[in-house]
Amino acid sequence: MSAPSRVLIVDDDPMAASGVAAILGTSKELTVVGIRNSATTLGDAIQALRPDIVLCDVRMPEVDGVEAATRHARQPDAPRFLMMTAFDEEGRVLDAINAGAVGFLLKHDDPRWILDAVLAIKNGGSAYSPRAAAQLTEWIQNSRSSAAQRAAIEKMKLLTDRERQFAIALVTDGASDADLAARFFVAETTVKSALGAIRTKWGVRSRTEIAVIVAQSGLA
């Protein structure tokens, strides 16, 4: 059995951070190596604690989660950043994704979903909760420019019918690979292969980036 993934929690709300730590502590696949209530010294914490995953609040004083991801998510051997948000500043979440974050959660998501999301990140995937995905989709569709929509539609045209079905399901339901496999009566390896093909065709790295493009297209 592989060693547990090391998780660093960054949130200026000590109670919220402790609650998330308790949820993650129920899994033998994860170990919380630290909690920080500020991102101002996050670089030092990453060097000292060597986390595999940083679970980071979006809204914090001084250095917020977006700036933290911008500074650290694309560094060599960087931990993977999973953002938490109350989703009152949706555009900041998009900024974090562009900075290299691989997923986002709503703070009031079901605790089981928070745990599943971190485990998905541990296993090399991306994660965003269904409620967060729905809100993000609505925000993108309400604010998209015609140029961005046209570009997204052209990208959708590059996909096969099955790839398009999978991509849309990511946005509408926040479905996992296993969910997609069960829904479309295919093997989970088929889903992984299709999502890999989408990432290659679109030049993106994560499920979250796929979801953003689908939402921009307005085809979900």
UniProtKB/TrEMBL annotation:
SUPFAM superfamilies: C-terminal effector domain of the bipartite response regulators, CheY-like. Pfam families: GerE, Response_reg. Keywords: DNA-binding, Phosphoprotein, Transcription, Transcription regulation. Residues 6-122 form the Response regulatory domain. SMART domains: HTH_LUXR (SM00421), REC (SM00448). The modification 4-aspartylphosphate is found at D57. InterPro entries: CheY-like_superfamily, NreC/VraR/RcsB-like_REC, Sig_transdc_resp-reg_C-effctor, Sig_transdc_resp-reg_receiver, Tscrpt_reg_LuxR_C, WalR-like. PROSITE patterns: RESPONSE_REGULATORY (PS50110). The keyword Hydrolase does not apply. It comes from the Bacteria. The keyword DNA-binding applies. PANTHER family: TRANSCRIPTIONAL REGULATORY PROTEIN NARL-RELATED (PTHR43214:SF24), TWO-COMPONENT RESPONSE REGULATOR (PTHR43214). This is Response regulator transcription factor. It comes from Microbacterium panaciterrae.
